[in-house]
Design brief:
The strands form three sheets. A three-stranded antiparallel sheet has the order 2-1-5, with no helix packed on it. It has a two-stranded antiparallel sheet with strand order 3-4. The longest helix has 5 residues, at 54-58. The chain has one domain (5-71): Rubrerythrin, domain 2, CATH 2.20.28. The protein is mainly beta. A hairpin with a 5-residue loop joins β1 (5-8) and β2 (14-16). The protein contains one helix and seven strands, in the order ββββββαβ. Helix content is 7%, strand content 40%. The radius of gyration is 13 Å and the shape is globular.
Length: 73
């Protein structure tokens, strides 16, 4: 069974494959435009209010979303 979620290797945002944008015969991240993804990830965290989050500040994320801290390429 194929994995339902993937992680952008640039912004580390966790995405459902349905969220990807199909552009010029390739899938791209709708947040950063990267076209490289992985299904091997761990240490998942959700940022709701980045301006109030110490974790978001530590990892330098200024936007809300679901992210993976660790990925394997």
């Amino acid at each position: 069974m194929p994995k339902k979620y993937i992680v952008c290797t640039k912004c580390k945002r966790i995405l459902n494959k349905k969220e990807l944008i199909h552009r010029e015969n390739r899938d791209v991240c709708p947040f950063c435009g990267n076209d490289r993804f992985t299904t091997s990830f761990s240490n998942v965290f959700l940022i709701i209010k980045p301006e109030e989050s110490n974790v978001a500040k530590t990892i330098q994320k200024k936007e809300s979303g679901l992210f993976a801290l660790t990925i394997e390429i």
